Amino acid sequence: MSTVNAASCCTLLPMRVLGIDCGTEYTGYGVVELSASGELLCLLCGAIKLSPSEPLPLRLSRIFDRLNEIIQEHHPDYVAIEDIFYAVSSGRSAAWPCWLQPPPD
Q: What is the CATH number of the domain that holds 20?
């Protein structure tokens, strides 16, 4: 029986991804790039600090404005947004990464 080396059968194309970790007090973000040589580079990471005392529409506007700046500056090929789900039986939340999506035009 022969085995197949995943690295020899799969080719990852160079890409740039914006990752977003949603939150109402802090929204985290990071931009990573996979180079043609296969090296993974962190281009940017940080958090948007929000005040819980501000109205939610204002906090969402701040998140939108900052993420828009990042998209305009770094031109990601894809965006990955953490998806939160709640377990019905325990009432606890857990993070589940969603599928990568191209950013809107």
A: 3.30.420.10
